[in-house]
Design brief:
The complex is a heterodimer of chains A (364) and B (363). Chain A has 364 residues and is of the alpha+beta class. Chain A has helices spanning 42-50, 92-102, 107-120, 136-149, 166-183, 194-200, 218-223, 228-233, and strands at residues 4-13, 16-26, 31-35, 57-62, 65-66, 77-80, 154-158, 186-191, 203-208, 211-216, 240-248, 253-257, 264-267, 277-284, 289-292, 299-308, 312-318, 324-330, 340-345, 351-353, 359-362. Chain B has 16 helices and ten strands. Chains A and B meet through strand 6 and helix 2 of A and helix 11 and helix 12 of B.
Amino acid sequence: MAKLHLENLNKSFGVVEVIPKVNLSIDDGEFVVFVGPSGCGKSTLLRLIAGLEDVTGGDIRIDDISVVDVPAADRGVAMVFQSYALYPHMTVRQNLSFGLENIRMPKPEIENRVETAASLLQIDTLLDRRPKQLSGGQRQRVAIGRAITRDPKIFLFDEPLSNLDAELRVLMRIEITKLHERLGNTMIYVTHDQIEAMTMADKIVVLRDGVIEQVGAPLELYNRPQNEFVAGFIGSPRMNFVSGMLRKQDTVTLSFESPGLPALVLCVESTASLPDVQPATLGVRPEDLLASQDAQTGWPVVVNVLEQHGANSYLHCTLPDGSPVLIHEPGQSNVSRGDVLQVTPRENHWHLFDENGSRIVSGR
Amino acid sequence: MADTVTMGRTMSPRNLLLARRGGKKLHWTDILTYAFLGAGFLIMFLPVLWVVVSSLKTPANLSEFPPTLMPSTAQTSVVEGFKAPLPLFEVTTKDGTTKTLAQIRRVGLNAQMIDPANPEAGKIVVKVADAKPLRKFHLAFENYSELLSSTGGSDIWRYVYNSLFITVIATVITLVMNSMAAFALSKYRFRGSNTALVAILATLMIPATVVLVPVYLIVSELGLVGNLWGVILPTVATPTGVFLLRQYMLTIPDELIEAARMDHASEWRIFWRIILPLSSPALAVVAIFSILSRWNDFLLPLIVLNHRESFTLQLALASYQNENGVQYDQLLAMTTLTALPLAFAFIFLQRYITSGIASTGIK
């Protein structure tokens, strides 16, 4: 059991407030990913949980016990650093056992734990090498192994895959997910890569400027982003945004009008709570835009660049006012540069945000 | 510069000696460089060589003028009827022939000689101007053997022990003290850390001679005059050492220390198990500097160590000079012996010295 609660957690470096106020609870065994652009405070939040930074205000509770004044080593958490932070002058075995020796664990027990962790991560043949003699992926495994030997309540990962090449990153992603399934510990994972977040997380925490923008399951965030920031951040390639005016037509339909574009009629369950007219931003994911050359309705866009990935095609287009629109087409596309297409959002696959970026209504 | 750097990896001694500025032809800068290096080599190495060669000369040979290049000594011969061996001379007789004679004694401008081949012929009086001493090449190793044997009265092993004790103990303490200070200054954030660093560095600007008297006063207040610890303790904290180590430790990532902290390591253990092993290149540099300066130190031992039993080698060297003159033969032999350990240390450690200095980011 390792539940984690953050209560009104606050952190300032001098006069700079990095994390104004964070409230979050994480259940036992959850795989939680903190995601956000660089400088959003996600690593600081992790370091606060780890005990590597002092808390300015608020409380951190692990299993309902406040750990704010507990030293990092005694919090029952283990951290995997971005740079791995392996001790370069020690062999892999010594790296794995260093923490256990420090708590004067009996030798056979240390031996046992090291062997178990090493075989779990398939580094048992590397135990007598030094970190310098290992590849990036192997170092990564050793770093994770070092965390495992300590048998922590909570694993903390600070962008652990950012130093690996793309192919290895995919492999390690799967391995960490498998590891989580096998160990069943609570894990907190920090990344700026939203693909990692989407693929690994039970729960994603999207952060911006130290503020939690949204917490939820990956697909929940994808399908029902609470604001424009989350909508833009989650999903790759990025969601298309068009700003305009939203006008209420009747009880179940809305009309979205953007200057220079034909009005778009959107169906909702009820318009009762909405004002008659308000400025709004329409967000549609690239795969939710239907493009055709023959259609009579929809927005006219000009194809600028065509990216053929084989299985997918991406059309980089522009609206008449010059703003970019990206369209995803499954399979191979037969349009060519300069073609004019008519696009409409797929039924119920759109999002409307108000002036402040908060969601007004989503298609589903 | 770039050429030598790229060549650096496969630089054998032969390539090093024949290194050129690139290309096959000898560039004029090559000639200039080699001329400069050659001149520098001669200027620096010739005095050392002269000391070594002179240490193998007999006292009589040393006092000759003009000095001889090679160590040599007068040829002698044992002649019947005389206890001591007699020096041989080549004498030009009045009829123009030359003979080898042994000199018994010299009286004014004349010398009494005897023919070693035919001693019965009796004494011959020869003018000094006609006699030329016969010499032979001779290495006076007796300078060394006399020095090293305790019967020579020089007690050299005592001085060697004192010097070694001071050098080794002071270096060990220097390393520990300096690295602890450097660890705190590089890895802990505390109020006044910069002030502390600047204060330590500022002491670099004070010449050692200026603080000599205060140091002596402190040492004497502590009752350490004449004690080897009186030389060791004032020198164990060196600003250069602290600075060098701090700069190196700054390059050790903080994440390592954080990882160790999460691994239940105490600060002391982090220092011993993580920081010290990783700073070994910088520690080597500080150790070498410390060994050099402690071994060669003269001024502080001179004022602190006032008994002959506590003399270091350097003091003992100076003590060969007394009111009766200088025993050059012993002095030179001892100088050579004193310089040897450092010379060897440098020859074998120079790789570490340069790489260590380079890696500490100080040029």
